[in-house]
Structures are given as structure tokens and as C-alpha cells.
Request: fold
Amino acid sequence: MVQNLYSELVIEHFQHPRNVGTISDADASAMMESPVCGDLMEIYLKIQGGRVEDAKFRTFGCGAAIASSSMATEMVKGKTLAEALALTDEQVAEALGGLPPQKMHCSNLAASTIHRALEAYLETHPEAREQNKERTR
Ligand code: FES
Reply:
């Protein structure tokens, strides 16, 4: 039964996902494929003044993928790039009140996809890389 597998928060984020969609003028974006089921996760970020100003996602995944993407995008909004890079898939699962073990590596890809987008952004924005280093010192 769904209620036994998933926390109330997972179900709530699945039923009312935050930040669904794309950002047409995104500063950073990335896509990852679930290594387990092959479903896809897309992340779009707007970056302003060294912070994640906006974050959106699209996923062709299951309810757990929708809930973890919704939570992860909420968690990185307003964060510095260093803070957003420090967010882990485990922290996202924890913030959701946990995920079933079989869903952890299958559906919980949002933080990893956010890292991929930010790393690509830092590659092409050396000034942001320097700022990011200073903030982590
Ligand atoms: Fe594919 Fe969850 S079953 S993302």
C-alpha cells in the first residue's frame, strides 16, 4: 500500500510538486538518466549574484522521482553555489521523511543532477568558480 511505503511528505510533494517545468533562459541545466530504470531527470537553474535564484525540473520518472525533484529544487533555491553543491541525495531523502531503499538510487537523482548543472556552469564561468572557492574557505 502506498501509505506504508512513502512518508506523508513524499505523497504531498508527489501530489503537489513544486517547481515543475523549464527555465527558457536558464544559466545552467543538466539531464541524468536513472542507472536503475533508465528514467530521465532534467534540472534548470537561474543563477544570480552567486546564488541559485530559481530551480525547475522535469522528470520522466515515478512518484518518488517527482517528490525528490520537488524537494531538491525547493532546498537549493536561495542557496549559494557552494551550498547547492553540498546538497546530497541523502539529505533530500531525509527532508522527505525517507524513501524506500529500492527508490534511493533509482529515483533520487535531483541533487546529483543539480551538481552536474552547477559543475558545467562553473566550467564556463571562471569568476563564479573563484567566488565559490572564496565562500567555501
Ligand atoms: Fe524510474 Fe523511479 S522508477 S525514476
Summary: Strands lie at 28-33, 40-48, 51-59. Helices lie at 2-5, 8-15, 63-76, 81-86, 89-95, 101-107, 110-124, 126-136. The pocket of FE2/S2 (inorganic) cluster is lined by residues 34, 37, 39, 61-62, 64-65, 106-107 (CB under 6 Å).
